[in-house]
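Bug #77: duplicate submission created two jobs. Keeping one. Sequence:
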Amino acid sequence: MTKEKHLYRFLFLASIFLLLINDLYLKFEYHNYLTGKLSDITGLFAFPYFFSCFFPKKIKPIYILSGILFVFWKSEFSQPMFDFAHSYGIGINRTVDYLDLIALLILPVSFRYWNSSLISVKEPKKIFKPIIITICSFSFIATTLAAHIEKLNLKSDFETTLNYDLETVKKELRIYHDSIVPIGSFMIELEDKKAEIWTKISLRKIDSTKTKISLDSILDFKVQGTGVVFYSGIDKDDVEFMKKLTKSEIEQLFEKSIKKEFVEK
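Kept job's structure:
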């Protein structure tokens, strides 16, 4: 199999597809542990594989360097690089979470797949090569918009009641089971501020037609940068607005956001 044919193999193209779908849609619609880690796994599978297609004699160094760069990227040591980029309006961003390093386990899988020759690929038309290269390049940089993320970690005892059964509420709010009690994360979106607030909620069945929603904690907020990929600035006024929100104001936003989910259905 030639190096060009590697670009057309199924698992590689599937990883690029998942990377784009996850970062541009799934993360916003179904924010959970899976969507949070899927980008790292698919990205680490596809990134070294992609560059190995152009430097087939440097496959091992590419995979080793990819692992090292990923560890650096996910560590606090890379923060000066992000601060420098943001000062010039270059929108790149990441979250420091050392649990993300578990994604490194996908590297040997990707490496073995690149070297395998079990799956034959027909000679593709040359027109597809620049298209795939462009899509791959976009997928590697399209998810690095600048953002201001700040922890809040506020406890709350706010509760509201909906006239819907428990299963309907879980479905509409996309709540997933965690242990025995149905709990999950819920996002309050402030579109005019390009911001979102993440909360932890729990649900309790009152009767067959009513469900109580408890706001257990207010986790953090994020103000998203503007732009498509690069030169994405963060509106400082929006950040200040979010910082000044009181717990009571966030609880009011929470109630409006919850009820809006059902009004729009």
